[in-house]
Amino acid sequence: MAQVSTVTSQAGAVISHDVAMRFLFVGDSMTIGRSGDFTWRYRMWQHLEATLGDGGYAITGPRTALYDTEANAPLSHAYGDASFPAPARRHLAGWGEGWLHMAPVVADAVASARADVLLVSLGLIDLGFYTDSTQTAANARAFITAARAANPRIRLVLLPVIPNIRAESDAPFAAECDRFNTLLAKAVADLDAPASPVLLASHPTGYDIHTDTYDGTHPGPTGEHKLAGAFADAMHQAWGVGGPYAGALATA
């Protein structure tokens, strides 16, 4: 499989985007965010606004809320920027949800949202609580198959697992994260296709769990920018979508 700069993709697979592209964010607690967060979804919305412009894209999905830690449920709408437009808040992300949970629901979400592009950050919660690297990789493959059943021309960008603070003291967990990332790269190489391309984004440049997260797992403002940048740069480098990520790596 050819390498396109920092992403794995079909060589030369530049994608025409004359028609507005519909993006669906899929993820776990790092993606849904908690009350008061800006979220990397917000940073990506800013990037899409700057590069694709009004009418050039849409953000879609069945959910809009943040996770409310006091209620222990996704009930909050208190985003860090209250002016974050309601349509741009859409997503398919859940606190404590992984590939295991998203594989059975992604087909319905893609069909109902009419999604064209999935930006996916999953796996850490699976490896931490639910499944080993082999089963997690199998669930990732099932997710891609299900998404394609709903839209045979779906495009996907997958982010490798970023090991969290647990990996520093739990060597078997760290090894499972590394092994899963190897298996995820193999899945991308196996499943990438011209009609439905799959990208493996690079690990976010310079990402440091001690400075880019607020608890060793969940991104703070700089981490949000770096996560959004990993997705944005993968799409730009491989598909010619949007432009290089130019979000300021500064606290908000």
From TrEMBL:
Membrane-spanning intervals of the chain: none
SGNH hydrolase-type esterase domain span: 25-224
Pfam family membership, one: Lipase_GDSL_2
Protein name, UniProt field: GDSL-type esterase/lipase family protein
